[in-house]
Amino acid sequence: MSKKYHIETSPVPPRCARVGKYGIVDWREDCARCHNCVKKACVYDRHRQELEYIRNLNEVDALFFDCMGCFSCVQECTKGLLSLSRNPVYERMGNTYWTPDIIHTTWLQAESAKIPVSGAGYRGRFSGPGFDSMWTDMSEIVRPTRDGIHGREYISTSVDIGRKPAFLTFDVGESSTTMGTIVDNPMPLIIDMMPSEYSLPTLEPAILAAAKNTELIALIDARQWPQLCETAMPYLKHIAFYLENGAALIEPEILKQTRLVEISDGNDVVKRIADIKNIHPQIVVAVRVELTSHGIERAIKLGQMDIEVIHLVADLNGNEIGTDTPRFLKDMVRHIHNALIEKGHRDEVTLIAGGGIALAEHMAKGIICGADLVSINLPLLVGLECHLCKRCEPGMSCPAKLDNVETDYCVGRMTNLIAAWHGQLTEVMGAMGMREIRRLRGEVGRAMFYEDLEEQIFGKLFGSRKPA
Amino acid sequence: MANFSVPENQLKELLPAQTMATRVPQYQCDRTVRPAPPRYRNEISKYIIRRSDQCIRCGKCAAICPQQVHIRKPGYEYFAEGRYHACIGPSCENTDNYCVAKCPQGALEITENPMIEALGDYRWPSDMILATWKMAESGDVPPAEYGYEYEYGDSGGGFDKLRLKFPKTPAVVLGLDEIDTSLELNRRDDGRPRIKIDVPWYGGGMSFGSVSNTTQLAKARAAVAWNTFTCTGEGGYMERLRPYDDHVITQVATGLFGVREETIQRVPIVEFKYAQGAKPGLGGHLLGDKNTISVSRMREAVKGISLFSPFPFHSVYSIEDHMKHIDWIKHINRRALVSTKVSTPTDVDMVAVGSYYAGTHIIHIDGGYGGTGAAPDIAKKNIAMPIEYAIPKVHGFLEAEGVRDGITLIASGGIRNPYDVAKAIALGADGVVIGTAELIALGCVRCTRCESGRGCPRSIATTDAELAPQMDLDWATQRVVNLYNAWRKELVCILGKLGLRSVKELRGRTDLLLHMDYTSGKEQS
User: Fold this and answer.
1) How many domains, chain A?
2) Rg (CA), chain A
3) How do residues A170-179 score in pLDDT, each as one tens digit?
4) Domains of chain B
5) Which contiguous run of DSSP H or E holds residue A363?
6) Which chain B residues contact residue A68 at CB under 8 A?
7) Selection from A348, A311, A316, A306 nearest residue A333 by Cα
8) Is residue A443 a contact partner of residue A370, using CB atoms and an 8 Å limit?
9) Which residues of chain B are within 8 Å of residue A120 when distances are taken between CB atoms?
10) CATH number of the domain enclosing A260
11) Which residues of A358-388 are buried (b: 16+ CB within 10 A; e: fewer)?
12) What is the mean pLDDT of the segment spanning B260-276?
């Protein structure tokens, strides 16, 4: 039996005080010194830890913001002096898409590499924009397509990047098909370049090491290669160079050691691909298509040309770029996927979807919508305790102190995060009764969409929906 | 006692008589409402009263407040921390007892408690939690003047967007005692007992391990008091539950913890749990820390090891296999009704019909946003459909197949208050199963920390030797009994306002519902 895909992880504690959702507000005037809060009420021992912290200010891992919000001390305080409040620092983190809850869960996953588990039912909204308007389906009894009994270790999350032949040809019993090169990626994920607005720090060496640990591929802008080449040489197998239009090609002997390369879109893509293939015939070439108002059209066109891989990139929040009423990544990917099926070209091209992939669930949902795999960048940065505050300019104070960060810490946190995502992907695939991630691509039968359910069920009962 | 309309000796099946026997004396518990005040020193309140230093301690506020919010202990000059949770807030202005107006010094001010922002979430907003506490305390829904908006949450869809359409005057004016809230659970004419419960809900499965002994027993006692049921969950059948056998559902889940022929024979209903709404497609999940000595003994497992139940039943891959399971239970216990608990995938309607033909009495659908002691976050939010969609889907399909009246449809996974009960029934369910609401009644604040370490800091969902005993069984029982009373009373009011004589008449009456996002709603409002 071949080796199972497994990511080695170990916990990597945070470097900064955690920003928790709740804080206990406590004004000590009139405190009876009964110690109920310290000794009895807090089962998490937070009050005592806070006292320790105050005694010894050198301790940086202050936990006192890490209140679990159980109200026990508030309700047990002899004098009713304590109150619980939402932490304003927590509420300020991120933005409307990258919510504080997303940032917080990413931190915990990067720390522990564990699947987040909690008690009580779902606390959030019924549905929402973007990926929150779909649910994955699950497999109950009587599912003829069910893969049968299997443990998580038998679920394959491996995907191929590159051209697969539509059919095999045989010549006197021997296969006469010439197979193109495909890159086997053990998880439907590649690491995209960090966006320029999040410029601190230079993470590439850590990203490459994490890519090696997780056996994934990371995109590196070829213009950075001169600065990187010394440290990055051992990771060439996990690098895919990104070649901007007009950028100089990487030296052939370097390029030949990589498996995937990505080029920017342009009128001369076919020629540029040919140039690259001339140097390294076995390389797989992806074309990066920004999902602007012409993005969908362009992607469908490229899909009908002889392009192996299309990397669709929405903005950081998963929205169409540069339009007033942007469509969301999931809808754009569905559109492109369906159009390519209709035109009979879907299986000739690999679609990578990026932008707005913030949680492990988005990976599964993106694939259900038609992508073969997804690309991420910001989650890895968030894994390093980043608040997404964009205070990255030199001289500004980064709350995560990322201007001075050790590589081991970065590699460990990124590896942990990817491992936690992998674990969650297998959980959700297990629930769906899917044994292979490749089979999930475009499998909208394993998903339910808010608009469809509303129309099919409530539409019948309550008439038509009011315009939004 | 559950109501067995067919005497046991008339059953025709060929099994020895002792398979039906209840072997220990059964506990009796009445449904009298008694005050069950909060167990914490400082109850969280919606309003607080600020007292400025203008106060001359004349004591007038304490004298006039009928809710006894202001406390000055005998012999003390200064006021103690008030019972703010009893304060009815600014609406008191319309009464003669408004302390703010009556204070000769103008020293008092009522404001909303800023702390309630930290309580609750979209599905259970703070008002709904506080109102549930009030119901558990007093046995009645909080009077309107408290201003609790507990009928719906802020989730922005499903129950929270549905409203009951009350006519200006009901078609028939009914006395409250004329309205029937009972629910018959066996609709198959198969000679098995025609069990009837007095309220259209029963308690959901919570295992020993996920919750404490006290929590389980309090639920069981309330089930006795209200002639309904509670369910063991999948953690085995505690010996201490035996005096409640007649009101217990034995759950047979994939882990088969503590499932024996004998525990199946004790009870009037046996439930197969195929899936759970919070984690459809995944098995049960008890993290190692909560697997204490007593739990491990109960589950016949090793202490401290995380216990995962497999998914699915590895002996069931078709409706025929499912039927085999049901036959097995029916054979072992000849008075038992069988319930099948499933989650809500897109083909839940097919599953329900299949289950009917396999011989189940109750089809219990648990929606995608259901409660849990521990579930991966990715599962809680993303797998299977919310119950609001599943109920009409299943109800409609069962009707179309012509089998609707042969099966009892029970819904769960987000039933939070009597309005949700009414809405679920109007969408097509016969009754509901509740879980989280009972825990809220016991003082849960939904901090979501049920799963880890020593478990629940509020002593509800824990088996920790120090934490669990902090909740008193009699108090807990009374809280749940009171909650049931408040729900039933409100449900009767709802039915009365709709002019319906019974819960049965409400089933499937989607014409009595409106959805705020749909145009037909506009016409009605």
Assistant:
1) 1
2) 25
3) 888 888 887 7
4) 8-31+180-436 (3.20.20.70), 47-112 (3.30.70.20)
5) helix A360-368
6) 447, 449, 457
7) A311
8) no
9) 371-372, 436, 444, 446-448, 450
10) 3.20.20.70
11) bbbbbbbbbbbbbbbbbbbbbbbbbbbbbbb
12) 92
Tell me the residue range of the domain where A175 lies. Answer: 159-455
Query: What residue has token string 């518990």?
Result: B29
End-to-end CA distance of chain B: 45
* Cross-strand pairs, A352: A311, A373
What number of other Cβ atoms are within 10 A of residue A180's Cβ? Answer: 14
The token pair that represents B369 in the structure block? 């946003």
Q: Which DSSP category does A223 fall into?
A: G
CB pairs under 8 A between A and B: 265
Say which of B117, B160, B371 has its CB closest to residue A121: B371
SS3 of A304-355: the string is HCCCCEEEEECCCCCECECCCCCCEHHHHHHHHHHHHHHCCCHHHCEEEEEC
Q: B405 vs B110, B186, B511, CA distance in Å?
A: 53, 10, 20
Instruction: Look up residue A235 and give its amino acid.
Output: Y
The alpha carbon of residue B181 is apart from the nearest alpha carbon of chain A, in Å, by 25
Q: Hey, what are B282's tokens?
A: 């995944």
CA dihedral A318, A320, A326, A327 (to 10 degrees): -70
Taking the C-alpha atoms of residue B233 and residue B20, their distance in angstroms, rounded to an integer, is: 21
Chain A residues close to B453, C-beta within 8 Å: 43-44
pLDDT of A317-374, one tens digit each? 999 999 999 999 999 999 999 999 999 999 999 999 999 999 999 999 999 999 999 9
**Within the 424-443 window of chain B, which residues sit less than 8 Å (CB to CB) from chain A?**
436
Q: Is A27 on the interface with B (CB under 8 A)?
A: no
Alpha-carbon Rg for chain B, nearest whole angstrom, is: 24
Neighbouring residues of B34: CB distance < 8 A, sequence distance ≥ 6: B139, B478, B482
Task: Using a CB–CB cutoff of 8 Å, tell me whether B116 touches chain A.
Answer: no
Evaluate whether B184 touches B195 at the Cβ level (below 8 Å): yes
Place of tokens 């009815």: B88
* CB contact burial B318-344 (16+ within 10 A = b; e otherwise): ebeebbebbebbbebbbbbbbbbbbbb
Query: Which residues, including other chains, have CB under 8 Å from residue B525's CB and lie 6 or more apart?
Result: B514
Domain assignment present for A151: no
Quick one: average pLDDT of B68-95? 91
DSSP line for A84-109: EEE-HHHHHSS-SSS-HHHHHHHHHH
Identify the CA nearest to B205 among candidates B222, B220, B194, B188: B220
Binning chain B into helix, strand and coil, the percentages to the nearest 5 are: 35, 15, 50
> ipTM, 2 decimals?
0.92
